[in-house]
Design a protein that fits this description.
single chain, alpha/beta, inorganic pyrophosphatase (n-terminal core), Udp-n-acetylmuramoylalanyl-d-glutamate--2,6- Diaminopimelate Ligase, Chain: A, domain 1, Diaminopimelate Epimerase, Chain A, domain 1, 3 domains, 6-stranded parallel beta sheet, 6-stranded mixed beta sheet, 22 helices, 24 strands
Length: about 550
């Protein structure tokens, strides 16, 4: 489905509960404010905790966007001027002039492209056919069309015929001398009211007689032509004009010869740019080969029409792939400000609270907009998840105040609901090492080096010690895949309010980790609950001092 002309509210890769819930809530708020085509989206899989909350409120997960790189379907023109294969070149030229275009697809009756015509194609065709060449391949209906002619006799029909054009504008003997060198049936004679040329052409048995100036044909001449099987058309054009126009009666299909550039709807615009360097236009086709639209250089140069509102992050390294290629029009976040640039000023909310859901809920309350019970419950779940039921050191008075307001709007007790949220996903073995480590894994950068830290909550550390080696193997896979100097996961016991830190990394980094060490790669972080506030700043400082 094309993404153009839509606005997606989307969180970071490997979205956590706050990221998903705040995206759903903000999308609803935007719609209430009158913004159309605003949808919540996600850049990764839903983790078990978020699934529990969505199921609790019978809420559908946001649309998954693996990337937002502009594709052919996002930029193509669908209101396309096109012609059938039988269309005479004269009409194609007229359409180009009227519509101010340089590229016209030629399609068959089923909508499948047979080729495409450009101004250069038409110019080349015209130059070749007027450069001393007599032959024109066309149809009688096309000749009659371009000449606005009346068909007096037709022995040719509608099929393609190749004619050698002759203009009867000389003495009879000279004319017959020239005409005698060709097969008469393949000749088309253009002549005015010269009955002698008309009769001698008919005697020779030419294929077509084109009478110019609108002159009527004598009845005797008409009967002679009928007897000899000579087709006759009568045009109001003068002889010189008729000779030019007949050359432009060639059907479009005779010029295109099946040559055209095509692309699928999913082809990336970045790839199309390279192809358009040597092409005027590209025809976008569906899997059955039918034309969906066209992409020209004009389409490529237009500003992107897809908008993103980022929630719960503001760094492109954490954003959905391709975010730098579209319009980022707003940010609502509670993390540090990263390397982020826009062309125009945008609303940018980045405040030190415990969750993005807090900020979105505050917007509902501040603007006085009605909030559905389910939406209030989702935002409550997002806030409780990110603040660990208001126990995290990132928790502020604003978080506590908004949780009280959301309790009222949702009809839920925050302690009971928070306990249910964390209890639903406390089993490490149930999640598996890949989901536990990668479910909320974020990559950061300092001095050009990258490190990544995941986090998951549990009740007690027994399962962690049992699964530690599997978790370590998963961290090593992520380290290699993402080219990280440090790959770690923060394992938080929400009952005890403390964490363990499991890490793998380059030797110089591991030696600098000054956390209390319990075992190989395992560190004790007492009273630590927040990755954002208590772990990431320390690792950033370590990298800044080390590199």
């Amino acid at each position: 489905m094309p993404l153009k002309d839509q606005t997606f509210v989307i969180g970071h890769k490997n979205p956590d509960t706050d990221s998903i819930c705040s995206a759903i809530g903000l999308a609803e708020l935007k719609r209430l404010e009158g913004h159309s085509n605003v949808l919540a989206a996600r850049a990764g899989d839903i983790n078990p905790q978020t699934s529990f909350i969505l199921d609790y409120f019978n809420s559908v997960a946001p649309r998954y966007l693996p990337n937002v790189y502009p594709k052919a379907s996002d930029v193509m023109s669908t209101e396309v001027v096109k012609v059938g294969g039988a269309t005479p070149l004269l009409k194609v030229m007229g359409l180009m002039r009227e519509e101010k275009i340089r590229f016209i697809p030629v399609v068959d009756p089923t909508g499948r492209p047979e080729g495409a015509l450009t101004l250069m194609d038409l110019a080349r065709k015209q130059m070749l056919e007027t450069d001393g060449q007599r032959e024109v391949t066309t149809t009688l209906p096309n000749i009659a069309s371009v000449l606005n002619a009346e068909v007096a006799l037709d022995f040719i029909g509608g099929g393609d015929r190749t004619f050698s054009l002759f203009v009867g504008a000389m003495g009879v003997d000279s004319f017959l001398g020239i005409l005698g060198k060709s097969d008469p049936k393949g000749c088309a004679v253009i002549v005015g009211d010269r009955a002698d040329i008309q009769r001698r052409s008919i005697e020779k048995g030419v294929g077509l007689l084109i009478i110019t100036g609108g002159f009527r044909v004598d009845a005797e001449v008409l009967e002679e032509a009928r007897a000899k099987g000579v087709s006759i058309i009568i045009t109001p054009s003068d002889t010189a004009t008729a000779a030019q126009l007949v050359r432009l009666s060639t059907p479009a299909r005779r010029v295109v010869e099946g040559k055209f550039e095509s692309a699928s709807a999913d082809e990336l615009v970045s790839d199309l740019k390279h192809r358009l360097a040597n092409s005027t236009g590209i025809i976008v086709v569906d899997p059955e080969g039918r034309m969906l639209g066209i992409v020209t250089k004009t389409n490529i140069l237009r500003p992107p029409s897809l908008n993103l509102i980022l929630v719960d992050h503001n760094e492109l390294s954490q954003s959905v792939d391709g975010a730098e290629s579209v319009n980022i029009i707003e940010v609502i976040d509670h993390h540090r400000i990263g390397n982020f640039h826009t062309i125009h000023p945008i609303p940018f909310i980045c405040e030190p609270v415990g969750s993005t859901s807090t900020l979105v809920a505050e917007l509902f309350r501040r603007k006085g907009l009605p909030i559905k019970k389910e939406t209030a419950g989702l935002l409550l779940g997002g806030a409780l998840s990110d603040t660990v039921i208001l126990k995290s050191p990132t928790t502020t008075q604003r978080d506590k105040d908004i949780v009280g307001w959301l309790e009222e709007k949702s009809g839920l007790d925050h302690r009971a609901f928070g306990t249910a949220i964390f209890s639903s996903t406390s089993s490490l073995k149930g999640r598996g090492p890949e989901a536990a480590v990668g479910g909320d894994f974020k990559v950061f950068e300092a001095k050009g080096r990258k490190f990544g830290i995941g986090q998951f909550e549990t009740i007690g550390f027994e399962e962690f010690h049992e699964e530690r080696l599997k978790l370590k193997d998963e961290l090593l896979k992520i380290k290699d895949k993402k080219d990280l100097k440090l790959s770690a996961v923060l394992v938080t016991d929400i009952v005890m309010g403390t964490s363990l830190f499991l890490a793998v990394g380059e030797k110089e980094v591991m030696l600098k980790l000054d956390y209390p060490k319990l075992d190989d790669g395992v560190y004790e972080l007492k009273n630590v609950l927040s990755r954002k506030k208590q772990v990431v700043p320390h690792i950033l400082g370590l990298f800044n001092s080390l590199y």
